[in-house]
Amino acid sequence: MEAVTQELEGTEAELPTQFLTFIMANEEYGVDILSVQEIRGWEAATPLPNAPDYVRGVMNLRGTIVPIIDLRMRFGIPKADYGPLTVIIVLKIDTEKGEKIIGIVVDAVSDVYTLNVDDLKDAPEIGSDLDRSYIKGLVTVAEKMVILLNTDSLLSGSVEKAIEAGSDSANQSIDDE
Fold first, then answer.
1. Tally of domains in the chain
2. What pLDDT was estimated at residue 126?
3. Is 70 exposed, middle or buried (0-12, 13-18, 19+ CB in 10 A)?
4. CB 20 within 8 A of CB 36
5. What DSSP line would sit under 1-67, residue for residue?
6. pLDDT: which is higher, 68 or 3
């Protein structure tokens, strides 16, 4: 039994990982499925004052105030109307202040792929203006390129502060009712 445990420990990094993929502007993106808490149909969020334009607001998810980020706007992709396929993917992410729950608005959910970490390729260096902190890697699946996201970097320090300030206000409103 000990030999089996040691063998598994040595190959842990090589084990396949599953990714949930979704579509934005006809491109496919993916997130580690272990960070996905749930997938919800689009519903309007309560706006937060002074939040960046890509923060659509917050929603109450079973007593937890969840900030909603429009990923198109966050990545500088032209805005699109929300339709029947638009969803909010609720993610658990690690931040400097601990684990947070956020929702990301995407055009549509696509698929779940099982990938080996060895299949990931680094994003190419294009120039100093490209922020690659959101990209975990690129992978080719069925002859199409999938951009795998580093979900933990979706909230930068200033965005996190704006969301926390709005969430505190929203929590206060809920407590007052």
1. 1
2. 66
3. buried
4. yes
5. -HHHHHHHHHTGGGS-EEEEEEEETTEEEEEEGGGEEEEEE--PPBP-TT--TTEEEEEEETTEEEE
6. 68
Please tell me the pTM assigned to this model.
0.78
pLDDT at 2: 42
- What average pLDDT score do residues 118-127 get? 75
The predicted-structure confidence for 13-44, as pLDDT tens digits, reads as follows 566 789 999 999 999 999 999 999 999 999 98
Which residues form the domain of 29?
17-176
Is the pLDDT confidence value at 166 over 90? no
**159 phi/psi in degrees, rounded to 5:** -65, -45
Instruction: Let me know if 27 is exposed, middle or buried by CB neighbors in 10 A (0-12, 13-18, 19+).
Output: middle
CATH at residue 28:
2.40.50.180
Report the range of poorest mean pLDDT among 1-15, 84-98, 109-123. Answer: 1-15
The answer to whether residue 41 is domain-embedded is yes
The reply to whether 101 falls in a domain is yes
Q: How far apart are alpha carbons 73 and 80 in whole angstroms?
A: 9
Two structure tokens written together for 159: 């965005």
Q: Is residue 160 part of a domain?
A: yes
**DSSP category for residue 121:** B
